[in-house]
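Input.
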Amino acid sequence: MDFDWQRGALAEGLACYRSGEFFLAHEHWESVWLRAPGAEKTFLQALIQTTVAFHHLQMSNTAGAASLMQRALRKLKPYPDAFGGIAVRALREDLERCLLDLEQGRTALPAMSPRIEPFCAPAEPGI
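Output.
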């Protein structure tokens, strides 16, 4: 499956996610998730769980948010640093930071949600 983050439901969901419209992002991504096979389906489910976690934070449901972050992290763990055009390592690191904040009692919505950003491979040496 090719992930297209430039147009269609994935792009629309990403725009919603970036603007803090987490529930709408979930809705867009779920439409792709329903048709996705195997590893792609699990990956999209982790992204959806991330968006729903931040929707829960917006609604002051910190327990629900923490639970969904943990589930998303478990799903993202086996993926390489980049998958489906997304920088998975950065996303995992941000989710871990947010989860730690919640576990330490810092329950306010973070200024920045976890990065769901396109992965850009480093340039080859000498190029």
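The radius of gyration is 14 Å.
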